[in-house]
Amino acid sequence: AWTMANFRDVARTKIRAQVSSGRVICGLSGGVDSSVAAALIHEAIGDQLICIFVDHGLLRAGEADDVIRIFRDRFNITLIHRDASDLFFAALEGISDPEQKRKIIGGLFIDVFEQEATKLGGADFLAQGTLYPDVIESVSVSGGPSAVIKSHHNVGGLPARMRMQLVEPLRELFKDEVRALGRELGLPETMVGRHPFPGPGLAIRIPGAVDREKVKILQQADAIYLEEIRAAGLYDAIWQAFVALLPVRSVGVMGDGRTYDYACALRAVTSTDGMTADIYPFDMAFLSRVAGRIVGEVRGINRVTYDITSKPPGTIEWE
Ligand code: XMP
């Protein structure tokens, strides 16, 4: 019978055959796909794999630390952590167009990755967590309608000048199979079962211009929302849940004083592939508990709304 244990054995052998004694570099993002690819390749070739984690400062609260803890400390994978957040925030300053934000982040991501690869003296192979649906999508719609609506910077990869052969051990797998493989490899459930997260990160969850201060506010609200979702046992029933920080300030009251702070929107959807989505029907008690905690605990937010738009006509993200 075909099991993930078989797949793991076969993949290991294939990776060794492809790579031989060459050096492989892999970009880690904290997402499921690159994490599973890295763990699998490390199992096959050990220290011939070097992971590069370009930290753009736009991850959820605690996720950069998780990546380091899991890969460096627990799996003993050679990991370069490059905190490039200053570069990203500087490049994003005053930029409010969604597509321009994506381009800036995607371009800088590649530049920084390339810098780190060059510092290492280069590599023979580049590992990517490409899945079967990515293969299909990039063949059939590259430049097609979805690419026009939103350019996904993590699909498409690095410039030709880097000239490395690709190692893509997940090319035949669907997402649920990648998750099963991740469990088989001993990756923690919090990473393997994680909701999809966009490459441009929190930058596209802050409509309008992005800065460090706004990211910090959003991270705090988002962490509370996710904590409550997990505590209510709802995480796995939801495809994606997140907070968007709105570029709107509104008046509120706090104690004896008047506040004038940001509004945020809670988003939670169910979906099977992200192409269409329905809103998750939280009960009011849950929503008001989250709203109370966010307004009470996060300085800078004094109003919480719930986004009840399905896809289509909405999109999952706000940008
Ligand atoms: P939308 O907002 O288009 O999102 O309904 C569909 C799925 O794609 C994710 N998404 C992105 N992923 N880079 C990514 O890697 C992006 O620029 C990007 N934009 C949207 C979104 O989180 C959802 O899962």
Automatic annotation (TrEMBL):
It catalyses: XMP + L-glutamine + ATP + H2O = GMP + L-glutamate + AMP + diphosphate + 2 H(+). Its EC number is 6.3.5.2. ATP binds at residues 29-35. Keywords: ATP-binding, Glutamine amidotransferase, GMP biosynthesis, Ligase, Nucleotide-binding, Purine biosynthesis. The keyword Ligase applies. It is an enzyme of class 6 (ligase). It comes from the Bacteria. GO terms for molecular function: ATP binding; GMP synthase activity. GO terms for cellular component: cytosol. Pathway: Purine metabolism; GMP biosynthesis; GMP from XMP (L-Gln route): step 1/1. The keyword Repressor does not apply. Residues 2-194 form the GMPS ATP-PPase domain. Catalyzes the synthesis of GMP from XMP. Homodimer. This is GMP synthase [glutamine-hydrolyzing]. It comes from Acidiphilium acidophilum (Thiobacillus acidophilus).
